[in-house]
Amino acid sequence: MKTKITLLMFALLCVSTLANAQKKQKALSFISGKISIAKYHEREELNRMNKGELLDLYIERIEVIVNILPNIAFATNSNVTMTTLGIPDTKENRKALVENKEASDVYFEDTIEFQKKILPYSDTSDLIAAILFYESTLKSLHTYNDFKSN
């Protein structure tokens, strides 16, 4: 009798382990990280800011652009997954998406490290122009759907 109970317990343990192993992983989204900025600026407002504030704005805009633009053909917001687009959620596709995210993170970190060292030497008027250009690019994302032909 003890043997039957032991075997039954072992079988239940094996079945529960297999059931847990078969659970799907959480769906990965194409866009993660910062995807929006808090405020758009006018040139006059930027002219009143010190260079440190401008550098922070510039870096924040780069972060948003790096997170969104490479994946714009898939999504412009963070809740779009492979499944919502009808892309098979296979091991290979998940791996490709994870590797892409990792590469994007490395690129962003390297870019920011460079920007923090070199950007302070930039001309303030060029920095302001770049911020305004980035903000204009981010504003245009709101019209992205106008270019689709559905």
What does this structure look like?
The chain has 150 residues and is mostly helical. It contains six helices and no strands. The longest helix is centred in the C-terminal third of the chain and has 28 residues, at 91-118. The termini are far apart.
List descriptors.
150 residues, elongated, mainly alpha, 6 helices, single chain
Rough outline: elongated
Mean pLDDT over the residues: 84
Q: Could you state the order of secondary-structure elements as H and E?
A: HHHHHH
Number of helices: 6
Class by alpha and beta content? mainly alpha
Q: Please state roughly what percent of the residues sit in beta strands, choosing from under 5%, 5-15%, 15-25%, 25-35%, 35-45% or over 45%.
A: under 5%
The low-confidence runs, each spanning 5 or more residues with pLDDT under 50, are none
Largest beta-sheet characterization: none
List the helices and strands and how they pair.
Elements lengths: L1 H20 L21 H5 L3 H18 L13 H4 L5 H28 L5 H17 L10
Helix pairs in contact: 3-5, 3-6
Give me a quick take on this structure.
The chain is mainly α.
